[in-house]
Structures are given as structure tokens and as C-alpha cells.
Write a structure and sequence with these properties.
five-stranded parallel beta sheet; 21 strands
Amino acid sequence: MSENNTPNRTPFPAASLLGYPRIGRRRELKKAVEAFWAGKIDAAALDAAAKDIQLTIANRLQELGLTEPAAVPGTFSYYDQVLDTTAHLGAVPARFGKLINAEGQLDLDGYFTLARGTKDQQPLEMTKWFDTNYHYLVPEIGPETEFTPASTAKVDEFAFALANGIETRPYIVGPVTYLLLSKASDGAPAGFAPLSRLEDILPVYVQLLEKLAAAGASWVQLDEPALVVDQDTPAGEIEAAVARAYEVLTSAANRPQILVSTPYGSLDGQLGTLAATNIDALHIDVFKGIVPSAAALAGLGSKTLVAGVVDGHNIWRNDLAASAAKLDALKAAAGKVAVSTSTSTQHVPHDVAEETQLSEQLRSWLAFSDQKAVEVKTLASYLADPASARAAIDEATAVIASRATAEGVRRPDVRARTEALTAADFTRSAYEVREAAQEEALHLPPLPTTTIGSFPQTSEIRSARARNNKGDLTDGQYEKLMKDEIRRVVELQEELGYDVLVHGEPERNDMVQYFAENLEGFDVTVHGWVQSYGSRCTRPSILWGDVTRSAPITVEWAKYAQSLTSKPMKGMLTGPVTILAWSFVRDDQPLAETANQVGLALRDEIADLEAAGIKVIQVDEPALRELLPLRKADHADYLKWSVDSFRLATAGAADATQIHTHLCYSEFGVIIDAIDGLDADVTSIEAARSRMEVVHDLESHGFGRGVGPGVYDIHSPRVPGEAEVTELLATAVKHVPSRQLWVNPDCGLKTRGYAETEDSLRNLVKATQAVRAGLLEAAKQ
């Protein structure tokens, strides 16, 4: 069917967002979902809360000027957009049994089972969504996977909004991206590629399109961000898959018009492939990506080009003059042009106007989701009538100019220090020298046990912090409560039999925000929540100026914790790359410069921890893989400066000081050379949910220093049994020399409760003791 016989030829809206935060302005969805999990509300109450959030979002975007049909994106999700697509396709892995009910639907209980697992079954694996700090649940697809429409959520959400007077634009992950992001299911033949199941999922997509058309949808958005990434799959296979997918989808007997969105970077080679299909609109990211040439756009014909000129991924005010120039170039090359964001704005908070504690100057530099909607609307007005946007463009230009000269943005003392760095500042002694010094200093057993850093943040801890911030609890009272909690955590670890202890971090609200509050060049928000995964939210700090440390940050807490035990106590720091990745970082200089400033601040902190008697210091870099550029040509430069910033932070440590690092939820094989390059003495890595996949990468690489592949998945409430942990450890021992192995959870325990944490950690120690005994017995034979 050609593009001209779709039932509704409603023009694509001149201004729209690619997506919007879905957790609610005060995290209403998080609270409702967690109440449902806890059995405090039923499914009907959760549905009512979800509908209220959806309607509130739709009304707010209309208030901001996105009033055309389909201008409001229908991007609601209870947990994750990829999981939503799995639910729609009914792609339930066989290992979960019969989750689809008698009506052929994956109900909420089944949906959340895939996300959170059961006592006997691990949830779907989790990993980072492109170059963001959002996590998605990885589909498991094999030759045996059955596909059948198992969710009416997308149609129901559209119908609900329409009944309330707002026609939204339903959204789902596109078929090619969905399969490229999937992993082969357990038991799939060697070499099996999920993309080979394309023909089998397309009929289910077609049925969704037909149901949405019948419900009255004029547009649907299919997200294909995998097309902006260099894939291992040959480009020709992807091109063929794209052509076939959209040949089938655009031939549906009755369908809405189709927008294909390609956020997070330049579409490059696949632009021509999509342009040649019968889709009705194509979104390209021209904020992070390049503006395509007129020749590249020539194939679009009558399709609408949706220009992502407003950054959906960061919070800085848009340079409207630069965006207007891009739009002029696009309009000259493509017939119909609409304005949107580069990505969904789910990656930024709702409204900067609510951050009244920030200075008026800083607020003037920022644009959260609501402000981005206004910027999109302004640029759409510019396309229609340039004079109508002149005042807004001039104001933005003036504000951006004033930011460059504001106090604290550039500090001569900070810049002089980074400019004086030499190669020696990035280098430690040889590992063999350090290893001998650390063995003498620490006297650790085989398979030493530790945790990653944080222990559960109880309601009492959060309440104490809130009362202290409000002035209802004195600093002295707060400090005593935190020290009481540290003592509890230390005593628990001693009782469980751990070898290297942590203080539990009760004084820290967030592993990045805590440092942002204690370093110059940062500010923090009050309501700036963004979704990390599921119901988990974070408030990224704002890194706006040159970074320096004026006083020790963690030393007194670590020193107190060490005084409670004769066992080694880890000092806990967040690494420079992670501080950047999990903050909204200044966009006026290269990230490498900012990373080195943070690295020097951490270097000073490590020196003070050593002086206080701390012999083990962990510098967490869970986001190392996250910032990896999507195009392979850019990898080497990124990995060079990111590794260098970590080495700058740690290279001043004495040989006898054991430097740990931690990484989680990434495809580690892609960056194994960089992980090795960090030159940490011990590296702990997420491995439980992926069932020790990483040990194969470690073995093939010949990784030669300490490593702790995680054996306890802390992103699920399930308690791993002793036998399960023993099996994981046995797998690790087969692939990594036991003298290098450490035993630890996948990540920090902040989000877990104490009961499940104690049971899990106890099982971890018992399993370690069993494997140690086996190693000793084998050594005797």
C-alpha cells in the first residue's frame, strides 16, 4: 500500500516532543508502582494513578503550546519502553513458564515478573539505553520464541487520552531496534541472531497499527535509535531489515501515519534506506548529529522531516540562533519540516521554574522538559514566520553570552593545575610491585569477600537527613545517628564474616550528588528527578563551572568506620567519568577537560584518606561504558581521556594502598581493554543477572589483576540461595585464576531492605567458604 492511502492525512504537528518524563512531577508513578508491589494498593488503584499521570502530562504539554493533533507523545510506561514492546509482542522467555494468561494477555503481575524476577527465576538482564543513564530490560529471543499480541496498553492509553479530548501520538520501539537490542535466549543455536525473527514479529506490529487506526490515531511513532549506532551486524543486513520492516508496516490495510524517530546521533547510512520507504515522517537528531546535505535529503519526497534541534538529553538552554540556522538549511533541502527534540526529554527533569533555590543566573542558563517544549514551539514559529521568534532568539543569545563570563565558570587556579600535568601524574608502579606491598599490608584470604559500598538506606536514615536539611535535627544529632548506623553496618559485616568492610554510606543521599554538594562548580536540584530504571529515580547534579575541592569530603566518616574494626575498611569515592555521566555537565568545553578537573579533586581526597590510615580505596566507575560514543570511530578518543581521568585520580596512591573500582550493567567485552587500562588493583563487575557472561571476556583478554564478578543481583528483591551463588562462583573459578577472584554483589545495596540483604550476604559468605574449601582440597591432591 502506498503512503497516500492511509485513512487519515492529518499533517504532522509543527512542534512536538519526541517523549516526556513519565514518572510524574513528584514521582507519583514511582510511589504508586512500589505501593502495588508492596500489596498496599491493587491493580485498579495503580491504573487510576497511571491515568492521572498520563492526563496531567497531556494537559501540561497542551498548556505549553503543543496543541495540534498528535503533538503530545504517548510515551507512558509502567517500567520500561523495551519491556512494553516485549509485552506487546508476547515475547516471554520460556524459562518464565506461562506468564500469558487465559485471555492471551501479559497482565501487570506477569509484566513485573519479567522486570523483577521470582524466587526461582532471575529477571530479564538490564543494560544501558544507548549513551544515557537510563536502563532497559534486554529481550531474550530464540528460534522458539512465540510472538502474539499480548498487551492492549498502547491502544488503551491512546483511547483514554482521546476520551479526554487529547489526541496523542502512540509510541513503541521499532522492530529493527527491538531485535538488535535483544540477546539470544538460553539454548539458542550458536550464531543465532534475533534479527532473523523479523518476519515473525512484523504481523504483531501490523495488528497494533490497525488497532490504533481503528481507535482514531492519526500518527504513531516507531523509535529506531539502533540505526545511529555502529552495530556488529553487517550494515547490509540492517539496511535490508529496515527496508523489509517498513515495506510490511506501511502496507498495512488500515494504519496511522508512521513517524520513524532516530534519536541519539547521526542517522548517516540508513537515512537513504528510510527515505526510500513509504513512511510518512522521519525524525533525525540534528542537535548531536550533523545536518544532512541536500542530496541526502532529496529522497524524502513528500515526507515530513522532523528536526531534532533541541537537546532532549541535557539541560542547557538552546542556542536558538544556531538552531534557526539549521532549520533554514533543512527547509531549503526538504519540503516539509517540523521541529522536535533530539531525544525524548525523559532524560531531564520537568520544570526549572520549580528550582527556586538555584540562583536566578543559573536558572536562566537552563531548560528542563517544559522549557524545551517552549523552545520547540518557538522554533516552529520561526519556521512559519522568522520575525515572530526574533525576541526569543535574541534573549537566548544574550543569556548564553553572559554565561561564558560568569564568576566560577572559568577559574585560573584550576586551569593552571590541569595545564601543568605530565605523564608521571597518570602512572603508578608496576602491578607486581603493588601486589606484593598490598599482600603484606592486608593479609587477605583466597576469594576475599566484600560489598560494593552502600548498605540499605532505611526510612529512618532518609528521615534524619530530611530533618537535618530542614533544621529540625542539629548537625551533632545527625552525625550521631549516622555513626550509629555505621556501627551497625560494621558489626553486621563482622558477624557475617566479610574480609574487606565498608561503612555503608548512610550519610550519602546519592553517590554523585554527595560529591557535587562538596565540590565547587556544582549545584543540586530539589525536584530534578529523572528515571534511571523502573521505579528508581535520581537527581543529576548540575556541573556548570570549574571543579575543585576545598576540604576533605569522606575522610572523617571512613576514619570513624576504620576505628571500629581491625579488618580493612574501604574508602568510597565516585570516579570522574561517573560523576560526569550522572550529572548534567557543562557543554562549553570538552568533557576531557572537565574530567581531569574532577580527577584532581579526587586525587586530593585519596591522599587524605591514606593519611587517615585507609588502606583500601574504591573509586567507582559504573558509567565507564555508558559514555562510550555510538560510532566506533569516536571510541579511541573517549576511552583515552576517560581512562586517563581515572588514572589521574588514583596514580598518586602508595603501592601498598589497594585501589578498587566498580562497573555495572554494561557490555564489558566492548571495553575490556579500557577496563584493563584503568590499572585498578581490583575491579568488581556486574555478572549475576547475565549469569557470569563477563568471565569469558576476562579469560580471553587475559585480565591479570584482581576481579570480582558479582554473584548477587541487587536490582531485584529476590534472595539468591547458597547453591546459586556457589554455582556462579564455580563458573568464575573455571575461567579466572582463583588467586585473582573476589566475591561481592553486583552493585551497592542502597535500594534493598535489610532482611533480604542479610539473607543474601549470608548466603554469599557460605558459598564462598564452600568454594574455598574445594580449592584447598584440590590443592592437596
